[in-house]
Specification:
single chain, 87 residues, mainly beta, 7 strands, 9% helix, elongated
Length: 87
């Protein structure tokens, strides 16, 4: 069995295209994404999959409109608790 470090998966956790942000994986992480010359901080707090709660904070540097797409990688009923905070 091959175990990969957690940092390997954070590369795939986020993506952007045009004015859309994609959250592909639920992983305890922080990242900054630049979109339309604006920095957007994305913070996930979770112990998923061991605990189902996922807290996602999205904090753009300044006001802007953009879409947020969240993967539906739900493997258990406990994972349906997502708490959002958008600045």
């Amino acid at each position: 069995m091959c175990l990969l470090p957690l940092q390997y998966f954070t590369v795939y956790a986020y993506a952007k295209r045009g004015k859309a942000l994609y959250i592909n994986l639920f992983v305890d992480s922080e990242t900054d994404i630049v979109m339309s010359n604006n920095k957007i901080s994305v913070i996930q707090e979770t112990k998923y999959p061991w605990e189902g709660k996922v807290r996602i904070r999205i904090e753009p540097n300044s006001e802007m409109k953009f879409a947020v797409h969240v993967s539906n990688l739900v493997l258990s009923d406990a994972a349906d608790i997502i708490e959002w905070k958008v600045k």
